Amino acid sequence: MQDTLITVDKVSKSFTGAAGDELRVLDEITLELRAGEIVALLGRSGSGKSTLLRTIAGLIPPTGGAVRYRGQQLNGANPGTAMVFQSFALMPWLTVQDNVELGLAAQGVPVAQRRERALAAIDLIGLDGFESAYPKELSGGMRQRVGFARALVLEPDVLLMDEPFSALDVLTAENLRTELMSLWSGQKFPTKAVCIVTHNIEEAVLLADRVVVLGANPGHIRAEVTVDLERPRDRKSPTFAALVDRLYDLLTGREPDRHEPEATPTTRALPAVSVGGLAGLVEIVHAQGGRVDLPDIAADLNFEIDDLLPLVDAATMLGFVEVEGGDLTLTSVGKDFTTADIQRSKQLFAEQARDRAPLVRTVCRALASSADGSLRASFFLDLLRRGFSTVDAQQQLDTAIDWGRYGELFDYDTDTDQITADPAAGLL
């Protein structure tokens, strides 16, 4: 059996917002990191991936539950881990060698031994010859190599990586991934396990033995997918493609999230996108014949897939597109929405939003139940704060008002803070 190095046992984490409200970021996460494996934490922005990684590192204490390293509960920094950051986090006034020696100096390693180990790590990561260079003299890829060397020189049981390739150009990132996997497969890699945070689905399948998919609001484990493929991995193989599609289904919500109860305004948030933005996505799908590949759209528009997922969420929530794997397919309602004249398009949007968007539906029902078809926005904000931080609650209401105004379901008066049903919407 593989040795269990780190145990995450029902870990929850909450932060206090500016208004004194509680923001729950992680909810009862249970996870093991074992020797001999690479684990990817995959999720969208806001799913708590980086918070979880820092909790594993002992940099952030959990609010509930415990993190244990080799059976011992953490009460500070995890002695068995080292971290590689997205932003490189190098000291600009120190040379490459001095940066790599930093952790060893903090551990009190003697100068001669420190130098020997640092030079070996620099050589391992392919930076020999740059020992005396300063970070400003290095490219982004070379700076990240320094970050790897600084972590690996500590010979940690578990190497933690927080989106280490996302700040690099595509070719440099691919080169570093390949070299990392070559080191991992060899005999000189000075660590027993790797845990990497990513929002890149193909990166997760390329690197990991297990992919832990996180949901949001708050962060929780949606699924754990085993990647049983030999290395080096072939992106063009049917098994690779099937795994990528499965993870797309999980991230875009096609596979149900058993953590979530029946949709309400606080359990199914409105994606923070404008009507124009989601309409633009639907128009693109229509222009491409009604079916498109999401990675292809992202590449054409020069966006990360993670940037497009809120638009996909909104279009899916309203029934304009369907998602399967990495493919978006236009529905009949979506086709009518994007090809109709402006008034019919707005009418279709209103019908779909009232039926399928939980917060818009709740606002419409509340206005219909009021004496005069009007309620203060603060009424809805108070309800939303039960499930969201103050900032997120306001964003949810702003999105609902934007959608409701476009669909001519209701209007909002900033001066009076009143949301009022549109007489033509038939709510009263």
Give your account of this protein's structure.
42% of the residues lie in helices and 21% in strands. The termini are far apart. The protein contains 15 helices and 16 strands. A hairpin with a 2-residue loop joins strand 4 (64-69) and strand 5 (72-73). Helix 2 (96-106) crosses helix 3 and helix 8 crosses helix 10 (305-317). The protein has helices at 49-56, 96-106, 111-124, 140-152, 170-185, 201-207, 238-252, 275-287, 294-301, 305-317, 332-339, 342-356, 358-369, 377-384, 390-406; strands at residues 4-16, 22-34, 38-42, 64-69, 72-73, 81-84, 158-162, 193-198, 210-215, 220-226, 291-293, 321-324, 327-330, 374-376, 410-413, 418-421. It folds into three domains: 4-252, Rossmann fold (3-Layer(aba) Sandwich), CATH 3.40.50; 276-338, Arc Repressor Mutant, subunit A (Orthogonal Bundle), CATH 1.10.10; 339-425. The strands form four sheets. It has a six-stranded mixed beta sheet, sandwiched between helices. Strands 2-1-4-5 form a four-stranded antiparallel beta sheet, covered by helices on one side. Strands 11-13-12 form a three-stranded antiparallel beta sheet. The protein is α/β, with parallel strands linked by helices and 428 residues long.
Question: Any chance you could write out the topology, listing elements then pairs?
Answer:
Layout: E1 4-16, E2 22-34, E3 38-42, H1 49-56, E4 64-69, E5 72-73, E6 81-84, H2 96-106, H3 111-124, H4 140-152, E7 158-162, H5 170-185, E8 193-198, H6 201-207, E9 210-215, E10 220-226, H7 238-252, H8 275-287, E11 291-293, H9 294-301, H10 305-317, E12 321-324, E13 327-330, H11 332-339, H12 342-356, H13 358-369, E14 374-376, H14 377-384, H15 390-406, E15 410-413, E16 418-421
Parallel strand pairs: 3-8, 3-9, 6-7, 7-8
Antiparallel strand pairs: 1-2, 1-4, 4-5, 9-10, 11-13, 12-13, 14-16, 15-16
